Amino acid sequence: MSPKGQVYLFAALFIFLGLGLTAYKAIFLHFPLLPDTERKVWDIEAKLTFEAAGNPLTINLALPEKQQQFTVLDEIFASAGYGFAIEEEHQRRAIWTRRQAEGPQTLYYRLKITDRAEDQPMAPSSDLPEPVVPPIWTVAEETAAAGLIRTATELSAGPASFTQQVLLMLSGKSDSQDAQLLLEASKGDSIAQIAIRLLNAANIPARMVRGIYLEDRFYNQRAEEVVEIHDGKQWLFFDPRSATQGIPDNFFMWQRGGQSLLDIIGGYSSRVRFSVLGNDISAKVVALQEAETVGAPLVNFNIYSLPIDKQNIFKMLLLVPIGALVVIIFRVLIGIKTSGTFMPVLIALAFIQTTLAAGMLILVTLVAAGLWIRFYLSKLDLLMVARLAAVLITVVILMAGFSILSYKLGLDQVLVVTFFPMIIVAWTIERMSILWEEDGPREVLTQGGGSLLVAVIAYMLMTNQYLEHITYNFPETILILLGIILILGQYTGYRLTELKRFRFLIEK
């Protein structure tokens, strides 16, 4: 393969690799492409209260399972004085134990969750239903249940519509005497519990789903109940209060199936209350927590794993490729002359620290003063090495003088003059003085002005909030810049500034 073909091959490889890694982090790891993007994070607290009778205690609480539309970022179990363990054999449950306790007791379970994707609906469960166990009724309950099942069967066409008819009658939205008799005979049971018993009696697999609605400042509330049935193909949700099918997107399922939400041995008067608080948190922070939870290698072996001070250094270094691309565009495509190849990038980095106006004033003053001193030193017939060293020392003295003077005058921006690379400034002074002697002051102004113009444009791009966010959070974009630079390196056509030189070709 020819060198040109190799260049295009590597350029395409780098670009596609950079785009692929960036898309992976944005789509699958949910890193934000825009700065200041926020995501909703919900803090949920379950408060367990009960009375201990002075006997050995065992508290068993159902815990949320993994859900497709939500990601658990953190879990905290507050159980001072209690032994603690998590059981995951059949259903995920927390177990607190204690040898002896008496009087009112309080335990807490807290978790932090976030939406995994806004457009991702709640997926139906893939597990198969267990064999239906017919409920045990009293004589009065059995009579009322039989009449209610018969009526619902006549008004329905399948398990889903049958469930809706049962819930409508139990919720009082139809004049069903059987439903009223069953409700009165089953006092103490919720509509969802009665509906599940009726569905099982009709040989329809049904189970209880308990959860909470994610609403900000939701305090001290009971768990909401939802009926879930299997229609022979999939599980379907039904709201027992409205008899509507489906479940809201903001419903967080705490328990799916199982016998009870809370079991206590050795205590009484137990209850669970839930509180919810919503917070808007930086999307990048949330994405990092999600990536750590799933153990994403692209994040574990990334800049984020470095200490904070090292991250700040790399945050600055990752802007350099943008400045390098600007220099290549201006020199290769436009034809702007600069003093040194990448001197404008270093100047732009200095401008980031000093601000643009103060940086330009300092740079022009340093170079002008250095050129004046350099012309004087040239009259002393010094060797180039000694002359360059003398210019370097002069630059240091000028910087120190600027810093002291600015401190006395209260000009804080000038205090950061030390961010200018002294060696580069000294060498630039030397090159400009030689250029002055060989080609005259016009060429000095051309290259000096070109360097300053490119540095200002590079500074504007390197301080752009969006580009700064992209380069730091998606360092893979450097590969894209590398591919573009390789392609530009093959350009051998006319530069923009040469159009004036060859304008007679256009006129003909």
Structure notes:
The protein is of the alpha+beta class and 508 residues long. The protein contains 17 helices and 13 strands.
Question: How are the SSEs ordered, and which strands pair?
Answer:
Layout: H1 3-27, E1 38-53, E2 57-62, E3 70-78, E4 83-87, E5 93-98, E6 102-115, H2 139-154, H3 159-170, H4 177-185, H5 191-201, E7 206-213, E8 218-221, E9 224-230, E10 235-238, E11 251-256, E12 262-265, E13 267-282, H6 283-294, H7 297-300, H8 308-317, H9 320-334, H10 343-354, H11 356-378, H12 384-409, H13 422-439, H14 441-462, H15 465-473, H16 477-488, H17 503-507
Antiparallel strand pairs: 1-6, 1-13, 2-5, 2-12, 3-6, 4-5, 7-9, 7-11, 8-13, 9-10
Number of strands: 13
Radius of gyration: 37 Å
Low-confidence runs of at least 5 consecutive residues: none
Shape: elongated
Mean pLDDT: 83
From the helix content, strand content and strand pairing, which structural class follows?
Answer: alpha+beta
Name the descriptors:
alpha+beta; 508 residues; single chain; four-stranded antiparallel beta sheet; 13 strands; five-stranded antiparallel beta sheet
Quick structural gist:
This protein is α+β, with helices and mostly antiparallel strands.
